[in-house]
Amino acid sequence: MTDLVIRALTASDAHLFDAHPDPLGAREGHRRTRFRPEWQRVALRDGTVVARGAWWGGPDDSEPVNINWFDVAEGEEEAGAELLRSVPWRVELEINLPSGWRDDPALKAAAEARFGAARAAGYELLVERFLYRWTPELGLPERPGRLRFGAEPDDAVFLDALRRIHSATLDAHALRAIEEGGLDQAAQEELDFFHWCPSPREWWQLAHTPDGDLAGIHIPAHNPSGPTIGFIGVVPEQRGHGYAYDLLAECTHFLAQQGAEFVSGSTDRGNFPMAANFAKAGFPVAKERINFHAAGQA
């Protein structure tokens, strides 16, 4: 087998990134994504692209925040692993897959080749997630009308609510943050993400019961790819009433009122209560996502 060549791309040869099959339909999912050529890599053998990766970040980020496009040709898992090893950024790897990919032998084989390359490069499975996409023709979810919603300008109030919410959570990213640095780190990471999103701070909302008790928070947001359910969380003492659905319905209505032509959302595959709320609110599963993180690193 001939030697492998890893190339970082530039604006003049960015077209090489497209010189590879797309069996998982990643290109359609990235129609709104803006990639920087210098954060893209290809692996070539005899001049043919056998693996490719796109590291991604927001327009103001000095370094990538994740890898959200990674492909490997059949039999080239080691090339894919070498591609991942070739960069200085050990950031989270996201592999987006069509819904139901496990039932299609070709899709399953393509996915497992990527998983194998990731593991060979020192990445470990973090979590599997459902990705949702609501569009107006599906109809807005019914608002139960049980909670009172309002903006809150003080970040400390949200930080306290996030600590309470994450004190009993099923979210794999929050659990990892708690393991690394406790509830303060988990809450701060969420708050930092809310601020990172290019949507207005004024959109963040608290939800209270008619008696004035805090029920939870919801964060309507825009990420660089469009409108999204940024966060839904119910404080532990208010759980058992189905309030997560109320928050999700309100968040969807809020974004629709801002003119959203679609609303994305996501939850961990193992978070059965939240997955049920997305289904109840009329959010179909659009894709699935497998998140890997670098072994032994935050």
UniProtKB/TrEMBL annotation:
PROSITE patterns: GNAT. Coiled coil: none annotated. Residues 163-298 form the N-acetyltransferase domain. SUPFAM superfamilies: Acyl-CoA N-acyltransferases (Nat) (SSF55729). Pfam families: Acetyltransf_1. This is GNAT family N-acetyltransferase. It comes from Streptomyces shaanxiensis.
